[in-house]
Amino acid sequence: MARHRAIWAGRPELRWVYHGWFQELLKHVAGRRPVVEVGGGPGFFKEYHPQLISTDVTGAPWLDVACDACALPFPSESIGALVMVDVLHHLARPLDFLDEAARVLRPGGRLAVIEPWLTPLSYLIYRFLHHERCEALMDLASPFGLAQKDAWDGNAAIPFRLVQHVSANQSPESLRIAVLRVFMAVPYLFSFGFKCSRRLPIAWVHAGGTLEQLARPLVRWTATRALVVWEKSA
Fold it and tell me: Measured between alpha carbons, how far is 109 from 167 in angstroms, rounded to an integer?
């Protein structure tokens, strides 16, 4: 987390990309309070939106609460919204987390996430060019097996499979998918994320945004990310 915070501080173009994602998530949970971030990590979302209650499995001075995502320390139906960026595909028990999210959210509350997404192009990227695994054939109840996993271990296929599972097994008590928008995330790809510690020209990531607009008709086959919003029945 310290390394990511140092990179973040020196790269305004990377902050520009993430701030766009933060803004999008907040737009989809507007009017719901309190807003809790799950997996706050280095604290970037909290820095952008200080009103967040930021949580993570590991404590840090810039976070508000240290807790497991599957055991949130909030009373039932007490939270207006949960937000996450690149956290869902790291969870050891994603199905249990959705149950926990449904428990703490008020009726009409939302869980909004931005996560990796599988398409023919992104599968090749995540499977062969990314440091995390991308294995679609998994047990969603325990996608990393029964052994203790490192908090940073991830599987980029989890969000895609989870959306499929929720769509096929929806019940009145579960969260329903209110928004699903896939996108290429070219500005992020052009920024090289946290793999690059050097500052890049802001025009470079802006060019990525222009390319993404031009390639929008191909997004079904080329998307690398998804915005997913689940909503609890009112």
Answer: 18
